[in-house]
Amino acid sequence: MMLRSVVLALAAALLSACATAPSGPPDPKSAAEAYLDPQPAPDEVITWGPYARQFGELRMPDGDGPFPVVVVLHGGCWLADYDQGYMAGLADAIRELGFAVWTVGFRRIGEPGGGWPNTLFDVAEGTDYLRRLAETRPLDLERVIALGHSAGGQLALWLAARDRQPADSPFRSPDPLPIDGVIALAAAADLVGLSDRRTCGDAATRLIGGSPDLHPERYTLASPARLVPLDVPQILVNGGRDTTWSEPADTYYDAARSAGAPVRRRVVPEAGHFELVDPRTSAWPVIRDALEELARDTMP
User: Looking at the domain that runs over 32-297, which CATH code has it been given?
Assistant: First the structure.
């Protein structure tokens, strides 16, 4: 009887320990959860072209300016299923640091005109529209930082490489708005690798309109990993628990470093993919410091 009582007591103690033992870290935030986060409205939504997705969201800080500008580019595998809403909280937090924030809309895969080459044309034209905005708003276009997340990270790095486009490239522009620094969050910066792995429903292949074997020249013009070295300061930020998107970002980082580009990398160990754009997480101080670092680097 006593033995039975001891066994029962031990079993109860083990069950209690199991019940109170600390669990592991929560699963990384999903896309669906990211879109449930607060989405503060911009100060203005400004149409810059004839198509529905050719618009920008402008957020202006308090004060007289002129203000340095952060061009924000959203992710979502370049797909029409995803828009800029999940980055609204981050855009607002950046505005609070004293930056004007211009979130560029663009045509995406799955909607009329989306994909090659118009997604890239839209990003370029939407960014260049800042010159028009600066005619009536206190924007300092001598200090422009591009910040993109995931697919938007590819677009942000690509923007900074427009002056590296060959003379016969459809994206060659005689006077693109200069990008003075880039922050790329979990950047989809190696389109060849993403196509080979068919990541996100083979989105990179769909963006380009075919595989690297079919269109090698397009990958050369669009993939940041093929456009190194960029000669502007770049800070890549990855989530330590982001197993999908750290790989293309790391491939780009290695290529850029080998080519002598001024690129730095930060890793937020406990972050997944979407924690990087949530200013309530531990990723925000890393991104805030990166912005302030690039702003110092770009001061005249």
Answer: 3.40.50.1820
